[in-house]
Amino acid sequence: MPDGRGGWRCGGVVLEPVRDRAHAVWVSRTMAALDSAVEHTELRIARPVVAGDGRWVIGGWRARRHLAGDVGVDAECGVLTAVRLHQTTATLPHPDTTLPRPDPLPRPDIPGAGDATATLAERLAWGEAHRSLDEERGGRLFEILAPSRRPTSSPDQLVHGDLFGMLCSDGDSSVPGLVDFTPHVRPAEWGTALVAVDALVHGAADGTLLRHWSHLPEWPQMLLRALLYRLAGHALTPHSPETTLDALRRTATEITDLL
Predict the structure, then answer these.
(1) pTM for the full model?
(2) I need a surface site. Which of 144, 157, 171, 183 has the fewest CB within 10 A?
(3) Over 60: is that where the pLDDT of 240 sits?
């Protein structure tokens, strides 16, 4: 039966089609490492299933254990999970030390999160690339906010770039579950800031969430870069919804109050 995320569930196992073998192998290895490293009382991991011959991908498919629960968690829980997860991923190797660094794969429900678009959006957000963006899809707001960037010194590490969209909650357990991993190499607080920004954009939180976590290192600048990343992705994505841009504008107001 379909599992609601593009895979097929058979008992306690979910089979998922693979678009990019190198990416899928890297994600499977990383999720297996996380399952061994994280406290299961803090995060449940959809552990990948390895074939008898040691392969993670066979015939264009990979497998993972099914996690009970529905997509979505409380915003505060999501940010706390991000902090804890990135404490663990700091001990894991960067993607480019084991396999060619995988780009995020397309996610039709997340504006801008796909292949070269996500990579370009990330570089634009960090001032590592420059390109004119469609003003009506967020480019004008990006231009207004970008000059507020200031140098940061937080070290890069492996972070999750779409954690809020990949956590699930189960009514029988207070422990959130993680079903997949979108790899980026940036400061831990940027990955955490993405969770906070996504929570505001999806209407799951307000500015109180941002202020609650203001003790995190370089928090306002990480929030700004997270917002710029989502804005750039929205502007680069054809037919991106106006409702999402409205939510990004509201989120921008909350973030600029902290700069």
Answers:
(1) 0.88
(2) 171
(3) yes
